[in-house]
Amino acid sequence: MNNAFFHRTNRAAAENILSDGFRDASGSYLTEQIHSGVWLSDVPLDDNEGADGDALLLVVMPLSEGEADQFEWVQEPSFGYREWLFPSKLINDRSTVLDVTEFQYEDDFSERIADICPNCQDR
Q1: What would the pLDDT profile of 48-58 be if each residue is shown by its tens digit?
Q2: Residue ranges per structural domain of the chain
Q3: Any alpha helices (H) in 51-120, and if so which ranges?
Q4: Tell me: the pLDDT tens digits for 37-80?
Q5: Which is it for the CA torsion 18, 14, 25, 97, positive or negative?
Q6: From CA 96, how far away is CA 63, in angstroms rounded?
Q7: Whether 42 contacts 82, CB under 8 Å
Q8: Whole-angstrom Cα distance, residue 80 to residue 16?
Q9: Contact assessment for residue 40 and residue 84, using Cβ atoms and an 8 Å cutoff
Q10: By C-alpha distance, which of 12, 11, 18 is closest to 101?
Q11: pLDDT tier at 120 (50, 70, 90 boundaries)?
Q12: For residue 25, how many C-alpha atoms fall within 13 Å in the half-sphere facing its CB?
């Protein structure tokens, strides 16, 4: 089943991702260990959630039932959205990445994403 995820970044990085694929980033992310991967979310995030950048990418990735679970970062209490730290290789090998920046603030954004990915699973 296809799954729709979002990745917020800056314009230069978005162009690099679209031409060369994602690269893992590393950090402690408020933990005591170093983690590596690419942050994806189930809704478009912005500065309010700590996601900087003026570009928004849609990542359409086929995943089997429960396959994303091992990469999810569960927030307690919930912030109202979900996040995953996927390995870049998994994303690059299996995903279609589209720039949806131009219509991210339009009223029909959800409908346009559904048109792009009609068989995507709701998260």
Answers
A1: 887 889 999 99
A2: 2-121
A3: 88-94, 109-116
A4: 999 999 999 888 878 899 999 999 999 988 999 999 987 777 88
A5: negative
A6: 13
A7: yes
A8: 30
A9: yes
A10: 11
A11: confident
A12: 11
3 state DSSP class of 71:
helix
Instruction: Name the E strands within 17-119.
Output: 25-27, 35-41, 55-62, 72-73, 83-86, 96-99
In this structure, what token pair is assigned to residue 116?
Answer: 């792009």
DSSP state of 122: P
Residues 106, 96: Cα–Cα separation, whole Å:
22
First to last CA, the chain: 12
Q: Which residues contact 60 (CB under 8 A, 6 or more apart)?
A: 2, 3, 4, 5, 95, 96, 97, 98, 116, 117, 120
Q: What is the rounded distance in angstroms from the CA atom of residue 47 to the CA atom of residue 89?
A: 26
What b/e readout covers 51-83, taking b as 16+ CB neighbours within 10 angstroms?
Answer: bebebbbbbbbebeeeebeebeeeeeeeeeebb
